[in-house]
Specification:
Length: about 190
């Protein structure tokens, strides 16, 4: 591309009008730049000067998104009837399932989930266990000090005791898992 002389005054306005009519008749910015020997950004500036509404460039191809777990809530399903998830759940998807089960908005389901997790964390941090009937017990335990070996040097390393949390699964949850019953609930069964 050869250098072009800068335009001033009426010549600039006349070129802007000409470019506007060509652009509106279907010419692209790239074609106009090639025809006039000017840069594409200069063509865009001239089109703006002529108050031309620019066409949107085609949207770039989007990377396909990971499929989300969709929990369909039927209007015939009773409130509190659990939905069967179709795959592994992250925290957001779990909040959506909770919201669908309770018949509340997803954002509120997220807040409910956060509150439950926060209560468990605070209780375990204080050194106490959290027992959820028919689910399990989150036990606050301390791993004892132990000796280990550095894999790079082979030297022995002392690892100090540290607090951790373990989940002890209840017999009811273990039974549900063994049966692979996706419609089961951990709600207390009524007394006979």
């Amino acid at each position: 591309m050869t250098a072009t002389k800068p335009l001033r005054g009426e010549a600039r306005v006349a070129l802007a009008r000409h470019l506007k009519s060509r652009y509106q008749s279907g010419a692209s910015i790239e074609q106009l730049a090639e025809e006039t020997g000017r840069s594409q950004s200069n063509i865009v500036d001239l089109l703006h000067l002529a108050r031309t509404r620019l066409r949107r460039p085609p949207a770039p191809a989007r990377k396909p998104r990971k499929p989300r777990v969709i929990v369909k809530r039927s209007r015939f399903r009773k409130r509190g009837t659990p939905a069967a998830p179709t795959g592994p759940l992250n925290k957001t998807q779990l909040a959506e399932v909770v919201a669908a089960d309770l018949g509340i908005p997803a954002a509120e389901g997220g807040r409910v989930l956060e509150a439950v997790f926060d209560a468990i964390v605070r209780t375990n941090a204080a050194g106490h266990d959290v027992t959820i009937t028919n689910f399990g017990t989150f036990r606050a335990v301390e791993d004892p000090a132990r000796k280990a070996r550095n894999p790079q040097t082979g030297q022995p390393v002392d690892i100090p005791p540290r607090p951790t949390v373990r989940l002890r699964v209840s017999p009811r949850l273990a039974e549900i898992l063994r049966a692979r019953d996706t419609a089961a609930s951990i709600a207390k069964l009524p007394r006979p």
